[in-house]
Amino acid sequence: MSDLFLQACRREPVERPPVWMMRQAGRYLPEYRAVRKRADFLTMVGTPELAVEVTLQPVDLIGVDAAIIFSDILVVPQAMGMTLSVEDGVGPRFHHPLRAAGDFERLRDVAPEDGLGYVLDALRLARRELAGRVPLIGFAGAPWTLMAYMIEGGGSKSFSLAKRLLVEDPPRAHGLLGRLADAVGSFLVAQVEAGAQAVQLFDSWSGAVGPQDFREFVLPYLGRAARLARTAGAPVIVFAPGSGWALEEIAAETEADVLGIDWQTDAGDARRRIPPTRVALQGNLDPCWLYAPPAVIRERTHRMLDDFGGRGHIANLGHGILPDVPVSHAQAFVDAVQQWRAR
Amino acid sequence: MSDLFLQACRREPVERPPVWMMRQAGRYLPEYRAVRKRADFLTMVGTPELAVEVTLQPVDLIGVDAAIIFSDILVVPQAMGMTLSVEDGVGPRFHHPLRAAGDFERLRDVAPEDGLGYVLDALRLARRELAGRVPLIGFAGAPWTLMAYMIEGGGSKSFSLAKRLLVEDPPRAHGLLGRLADAVGSFLVAQVEAGAQAVQLFDSWSGAVGPQDFREFVLPYLGRAARLARTAGAPVIVFAPGSGWALEEIAAETEADVLGIDWQTDAGDARRRIPPTRVALQGNLDPCWLYAPPAVIRERTHRMLDDFGGRGHIANLGHGILPDVPVSHAQAFVDAVQQWRAR
Known about the structure:
Helix content of chain A: 40-55%
Shape of chain A: globular
Number of domains of chain A: 1
Strand content of chain A: 5-15%
Oligomer: homodimer
Low-confidence stretches of chain A: none
Order of helices and strands of chain A: HHHHEHEEHHHEHHHEHEHEHEHEH
Structural class of chain A: alpha/beta
């Protein structure tokens, strides 16, 4: 059993930082694409055996130091009653995005064991199949990001529909964000009870709002969900890409054990602002740098590790791995971390 | 003749900040949509009479304090030999994006009077028709942003093709960026000679790269283009949205008279970092805030003006105005600025 990842989450001294990659169970792996040929994305998410099969692939094939359960942040709105589809080349789409007041009122509250039992089953099965080789991470989407998807219906350039609600009807926005914070927080607690040894909150669209809206609509609910999740006793990782300016505020409000750092943020700068005695950091190699020749990947990964300084650091990319990255380049990244020693 | 805008560019004392809006000649105006019905986007850009008609609309209809010539940043790659189309709902597309070495070699160097004479004609005509009412702004896209479009073929979520070139073949990237810096810089000089009283460089995708790539591939060429443009004697505005962390470096490298501030950046923070004695700032109301009721627009605009402090500030949005904003809300923003007085 390698405890490296959990030790780093707790900022204990380690011989080298652990490494995993966001979206490591993903399309860059031929073995993932083989499973994906047999089942569509949502079937994979909804079938514990398939979800666990791809969850384990990067552990077996690349040797990462942690597994993250294969799932999707949009399972929570789906469990609240929204119809979701995920098509190749289009991405996730809600068939009936939230627009009128009635759309908001129709949403169900979610009891994790009820609407999201299949994710918990997948975690239980994954823990069994991992048999202690590496720790297992659970995750969920943060309230603002989920609400943005639920209103837009999918991804967006300006998120103008979701942001429009913030100025046109702030009470309605606060109402839904509060419900989502509680739903997400209890979902993460249930994930820990089902076997997740750490959980990550993804606030993928936190950068879509400016500082004032961030402090009113994003951070309080990210904090509420994270603090609720922490009651389960496992380390909580908070990743709010595009909001690197707010690291100090995010650390204070969420009481996170680990902050994810995006590739837009300078690693050394993040480390100076958030000392390893207070919070661990996770990140942050630019996923596009995995297109570089392996020797360059190795050199840039080592520079990043130097910048974070070793202690209280979990090596990762600064965003999800891209689907057309060669497996050998992902391997070069993981190898570079595992061969590094703090100087 | 109102000199307010040019005085603010030069950081001279003014009774109140001037105001204009990025994309102010745009689809939110019914009068613009009427012209657009008669001619497609590229015909409007390519026909000085039509370009000038829509350039003047926000001056006549909303009372902004500066006009910006109606054009597009992609006219430069187009003049270098690339075939462009702009379709409703799709956005700009190059038919043959740069991929193989030969695609880069085939690009022509541009002499502004030659390939871009129609933009210069539009500027001359606009100056004549404005008859001194408000100053006229010219503009161009910055080298990295143009190269990113030329490689991707259009907009992109991750800009992974353009960023891939930066790690796979840095010398080829530097070669094209240098050619673009010279093309753009001379184009802006020619615009000033044709009548532009200030020019703005848009590095719209500067936020698509992390700090290390920004310093190697973005900033040096943004600076080269800006410094070349400055030789014409008119104020140079540099707008690099998504790179608020680098304001000090951008100011130093570009020697810009004015820095554009995006809506992601806190106005007061930007002003503290860049004092009004050194560089003027332009921005930065979140365009989505124009969905708010006019009373809220007024209050937030006044707070923004307070945060910038009056001196050396040009009021603007922090990004282009959105097409579905009511005209009365755009008017509320402009009115709020024109009624404000520094306290």
